[in-house]
Design a protein that fits this description.
The structure is a single chain. With 216 residues, the protein is of the alpha/beta class. Helices cover 31% and strands 27% of the residues. It is built from seven helices and ten strands. Strands 6-7-8-3-9-10 form a six-stranded mixed sheet, with helices on both faces. The chain has a four-stranded antiparallel sheet with strand order 2-1-4-5, covered by helices on one side. A hairpin with a 2-residue loop joins strand 1 (8-17) and strand 2. The protein is globular and about 45 Å long.
Length: 216
């Protein structure tokens, strides 16, 4: 695959904490419409890989390319082109849902409220006036997903996005993701659930003790 045909490319991403290597060099490339599934046990390095792709952390070495351009360390890349759902619920508990969404959309250069399609998909209307800190984990997950989906992204990076979701919301998100990929978006989808990997992903990578292997 050439740089010209890849929407998202990782080249030799690796990471250490406290001198301990937690992720050996990982490389892949995704064309429009492709979804990379990432599987593995807890603590294997999956979330670290996704955080490096989303520019939340800097790798020790390696780079992330978007449409052939190195965007490593470029914070305009995730704000303009990438939607990220972290494994943890990294929201501001003192804000209302409406305030949280508006703040994030403004930071990404998006105008107006979340689109009706996303609002209906995730059942946001009843949550808008409520403070984040009063919401259940599943409700907060829906807000986090809305932040990732609502600003017209080219790339989505989702870390256990369906964890804690009611089945109706999980099914709705899976259907939305399939349509997103059919429109030429690309995604990195991390999950423990085989049915999600089989339904969405064009390829699968398993990480074991920081090392990436193709397949399940």
């Amino acid at each position: 695959m050439t740089e010209q045909t890849a929407t998202l490319e990782a080249r030799g991403l690796c990471k250490s904490y406290g001198g301990v290597r937690v992720l050996e060099p990982v490389s892949f490339a995704l064309k429009p419409g492709e979804c990379l599934g990432v599987a593995g046990a807890n603590g294997s390095g999956k979330s670290t890989l996704l955080r490096l792709i989303a520019q939340v952390e800097r790798p020790d070495s390696g780079s992330v390319l978007f449409r052939g351009k190195d965007v490593s360390g470029d914070q305009s890349f995730p704000r303009r082109h990438l939607g990220y759902v972290p494994q943890g619920l990294e929201l501001a508990p003192e804000l209302t849902v409406k305030e949280q969404l508006a703040l994030w959309r403004a930071a990404c250069g998006a105008k107006g409220p979340v689109g009706e399609d996303i609002s209906v998909l995730l059942g946001l209307e009843a949550l808008l006036p409520r403070r984040i800190g009063t919401l259940s984990g599943g409700m907060q997950r829906r807000v986090s997903i809305a932040m990732a989906l609502s600003t017209g992204r080219d790339v989505l990076v989702l870390d256990e996005a369906t964890a804690g979701l009611d089945e109706s919301y999980r099914e709705g998100l899976m259907t939305w993701m399939a349509a997103f990929l059919s429109r030429g978006g690309c995604a990195v989808w991390c999950t423990h659930l085989d049915d999600e990997l089989e339904r969405l992903c064009t390829r699968c990578m398993t990480i074991r003790e920081g090392r990436a292997f193709w397949g399940r």
